[in-house]
Amino acid sequence: MSVRDEIKEQQKKLKGQGFKAHWDYFWEYYKIHTFVAIAVLIFVAITIRDIANNKPYAMYAMFINNKGMETQSILQDGFAEYADIDTSSYAVIVDTSSNFMSSIVDTTSVATSEKIMAMLAAHDLDVIVGDENTMGRYASQDTFIDLRTIYSEDELKELSDSIFYVDQGYIDYLNSEEYTTYITSGEYDENNKYAVMAKQYEEDFTYQRVDKEDMDDPVPVGFILENSKALESCQAYPDEAPIAGIAINTQRVDAAKSFVEYLMQ
Length: 265
Hints:
The chain is of the alpha/beta class. It is built from eleven helices and six strands. It has helices spanning 3-14, 19-51, 71-82, 107-121, 132-139, 153-158, 168-174, 177-185, 193-204, 229-234, 253-263; strands at residues 57-64, 91-98, 127-130, 163-167, 218-224, 243-246. α3 (71-82) links the parallel β1 and β2 (91-98). The protein is globular, with a radius of gyration of 19 Å.
């Protein structure tokens, strides 16, 4: 049996087994590959910094699962002009090197998660843009800032049709001992709607958007980029409207907001 056929056979066996089974299989066979992938991503990040001549960041955005060939150059130049940034003194970075597949645990996805955590820890990340499935996952992991802390009530009301929400109750469940017990044992409370949502996600790895009205505690965490001229110009996400979220611990709030506004034109 070829390696490709063996992988397909293993994926068939893992279908419907949930995250833990996928992770155990992945870690057994691909941990070395993961370390290599992470090292490569770190090298890319360092290279980006070097290319920018070690200039301080004016804004750093990460685009996950970008499909455009020239997204980085088009958006870096476009935003620098839009925000009137002196690129001889400051670096505008639109990092398009990261990809994430929620349907299967692989080296690329793990490396992307590690990169995000590292950049958040270093306070270097301002904005993340990605497809809804990926952004829904990260929003549920408390990755993005509550927009109510950086926008006024009137501003959010004006942008209400474009706001992406996550239920704080679901975030709290994913951080609970109950969820940890489910991951390790497979046991969950069928009467807990958050437990049911988590189980559904672990089975098909698809984020299901919930209407704001059906959430117990809706938190605005992102913007749906419908009809974005900037994204259309580079074909970053040609088949869907991606979501932009501002990193929970960004130290460049005004720049992050300005970049999102640029994308929302």
